[in-house]
Description:
Helix content is about 0%, strand content about 60%. The chain is mainly β. The protein is globular and about 35 Å long.
Amino acid sequence: xxxxxxxxxxxxxxxxxxxxxxxxxxxxxxxxxxxxxxxxxxxxxxxxxxxxxxxxxxxxxxxxxxxxxxxxxxxxxxx
Length: 79
């Protein structure tokens, strides 16, 4: 999973490679302290996410595939 741009301001593109069309993907977003923020379904190998409502800061993005977290990465939101 790659997140671009990072840091981001209004939108972030989530790119999944390789992408398994038989799997169910979600992006889980947590604050830097571990508080759950939101979840987004990822229905394609590339998905645009609107992050305009998020306050500036560092977040943890977790990729969930078929209910299991398979990757984590940081996302910086600039305001």
